[in-house]
Amino acid sequence: MADRFDAQAFLKGLDAIFDAHEQAKKAEPYLLQALTDAENAHDEAGQLTVLNEIMGFYRSQSRHEDNQWMVQRALELAAHMGLEDTEAWTTTLINAATSMRAAKRYDQAEDLYRQALDSALKTYGPADRRLAALHNNLSILYSETHRLNKAEAELREALRIIEASSVNADQDLDVASTHTNLALTLLEEGKKEGATAHARKALEIYRNGHLEHSAHYASALAGYAQVCYHNSLFVDAVDAYRHALAVIEECYGTDNDYYRVTVANLEDAVKAAEELGMKVPDENPYEGNAEAPAAVPPAAQPVAGADAQDADAVSEDAASADAAQGTQGVDAAKTLLEDAQSRDADINAALSRPPMTGLQLAKAYWEAYGKPLIAEKYPEYQGRIAAGLVGHGSECYGFDDEISQDHDFGPGFCLWLTAEDYAKIGEQLQADYEALPQTFQGYGPREQTARAQGAGRRVGVFEIGQFFESITGYPQAPAEDAPHEWLMLDEATLAAATNGQVFADPLGRFSKVRQGFKLMPQDVVLSLISRRLGMIAQAGQYNVPRMLRRGDGAAAMLSIDEFVKATASLVFLINTPTAVGYLPYYKWQFAALRKLSRRIATMLADVTEQLEKVLRLSSAACFGGAGFGEGGKGAGPAIDQVTATIDHICAEIVKQLKRERLTESDETFLEWQRPYVEEHIVSSNPVLRSL
Q1: DSSP H helical ranges for 231-384
Q2: Higher per-residue confidence, 625 vs 651
Q3: For residue 186, is pLDDT > 50?
Q4: Structural contact between residues 620 and 635, judged by C-beta atoms closer than 8 angstroms
Q5: CB-based contacts of 634, cutoff 8 Å, min separation 6
Q6: Residue 449 has what pLDDT?
Q7: Which residues pair with 386 in a beta bridge?
Q8: CA atoms within 13 Å, Cβ hemisphere of 15
Q9: How many angstroms separate the CA atoms of 276 and 555, rounded?
């Protein structure tokens, strides 16, 4: 196991990067290396800590696509750690809602905010600032969905909570941030006087608390600039925007949406000022200066020397410029504030959707849309249509994770019909299925590769026989007296035909065919066990040591691979396919082995760990110690461990064969166990026996 992951040291190092304002260049490699270190140390709490920081950083850099799988992974990890019904979970819900809001999935965001509020009332105290943060963020959602009265109400509640809990509200960054949000909301409502007062108060708090180098300060400056702009004080707006850009560059760099939008707003302000003959300074008078812009005068002032007619023109042009800029600057300032706040949250996690496996998603989608569709349009077939998710794809095995969701994943399920029913309604039912909503609970539309479309599609409407034929080549399982057909079906194919879940099967026809593929005849099982014993002996017991003695590392590695595959297959076969299913294709073999090993009364349960040990040591054994953790000792120690582990596995297999009464021999070279196993084959068909 890797060394212990030190979360405090990690956070200290990250803080140093941010304090030095070097995050634009140094933060990402530092974060990704820390994530690797935490994973190698098997430290889940450390992984969650690092993931939270990565998400906060990616958001600050506007790298939303890179952030999606990070946030999903963090939520699943938090759930796995049992953090539900804790303060950390409440905070996670808040950040999840905030992420949905940033993606403009407003309905889901509001629902998550409401869940978070219910949870916060249980886990937070009435004066807890995190409760205020929730009201603050909810107000942003209301503002973006043009429910400004609700937005204002949420912000005033947030301000009440924060001021009541503050030691010194006149130097409190959170109070300042809430004043900025309230100013921007009032500005959208057309309440310019109130907006001016709150924008000025925010800057006053930053000056009092000497907080001018905080990332939050950029949002306050941008908000102040908006107030100036809408009051036709374009020169003051230019100064504030320039100052905001300097803070954004210092804290976040220039390659982000905040910087680009603020540049665009600055250009609008410069243009508006120049069109009115106002003199705009060439440089930012506040650059490198802790002083904030002056307070906003109560009303716009005419250009010096302008007559009354000019003043009217100024008013008209200012109104035109005000309309041209619209709410873009308001949105940018609010986004700046929200993202600066998220950098300081207890958990910076953000979610785009609730965590669900593919099977859970399929079942929920069936319950929400599939079942009502059949009840409404095909009531006479309700007792005849089977539904579920079976076949190709990691979600059908239950092994999918966030990485699996980049292809052939999304809302979907299978509907299975008899040949007679499919001929009558199959085509129309498929059309109705395709007309169902393409998104569900934040997932979708379904991403499909070319191989999973057309005849190879994985969801939709199928005739039962054709479905199984598309996977196995057979519309139903081969007969018991056709062992040659069974032996032509590899285990991965049978695994794909029998995995997944059946959500409904009132007629029972689909389940009967599916179960038929699980009922591999006992003679075939015994024949396969004999074959696996032969390969284990040939590849593992005989060829691994011979190839290693020859110094042919590549051949030894291939022999180890054949030994591992044969042993993995044997574990499933000896536990019987009817009970545990079949070994899936190579990618998921060890996931399936680990799952099987955790089951009560599994035979050869410890073999999985032993196989992984062989694989870990194989590089050093086959290609020498250099670069493989042997410290220059060479391949010798690894070779000894590999061969000893292979011998241990084979001895355990013999013990299990004896417990199953498949042999009476103590011979550990497994080739000589094959005749004892084959004595139990009843059929005289020669295809079942070894030569």
Answers
A1: 234-252, 257-275, 308-325, 328-343, 358-365, 371-377
A2: 651
A3: yes
A4: yes
A5: 624, 625
A6: 59
A7: 416
A8: 7
A9: 82
What integer is the mean pLDDT of 620-643?
68
Tell me, what DSSP letter sits at residue 62? T
CB neighbour list of residue 609: distance below 8 Å, 6 or more residues apart: 597
Per-residue pLDDT reduced to its tens digit, 127-159 = 788 888 888 888 888 888 889 999 899 999 988
Q: 3-state SS of 546-560?
A: HHHHHCCHHHHHHHH
Looking at the whole model, is its pTM more than 0.70?
no
Residue 334's pLDDT band (boundaries 50, 70, 90)?
A: low
Q: The tokens 């009464």 sit on which residue?
A: 661
| H/E segment holding residue 65 | helix 64-80
Please report the DSSP string for 599-616 in residue order. Answer: STT-TTTTHHHHHHHHHH
pLDDT value at 558 more than 80: yes
314 burial level (CB within 10 Å; 0-12, 13-18, 19+) = buried
Torsion of CA 347, 349, 350, 354, to 10 degrees: -100
- Distance, CA of 583 to CA of 566 (rounded, Å): 11
Task: Report which of residues 303 and 216 the model is more confident about.
Answer: 216
Residues 435, 368: Cα–Cα separation, whole Å? 14
Name which of 96, 84, 100, 31 is nearest 61 in CA terms.
Answer: 31
In order of 206, 393, 431, 441, the CA distances from 437 in angstroms are 48, 22, 12, 11
Cβ within 8 Å of residue 309, ≥6 positions away: none
Report whether 585 contacts 544 (CB < 8 A).
no
* pLDDT for res 631: 35
Over 80: is that where the pLDDT of 475 sits? yes
Terminal Cα distance for the chain, rounded:
46
Q: Is the pLDDT of residue 342 over 50?
A: no
CA distance to 358, 478, 558, 611, 646, per residue, from 623 (Å): 40, 45, 13, 19, 18
pLDDT at 309: 31
CB 57 within 8 A of CB 23: yes
Above 70 in pLDDT, residue 629? Answer: no
DSSP state of 502: E
In DSSP notation, 368-424 reads IIIHHHHHHH-GGGTTT-EEEE-SSSHHHHT---GGGGGSSBSS--EEEE-HHHHHH
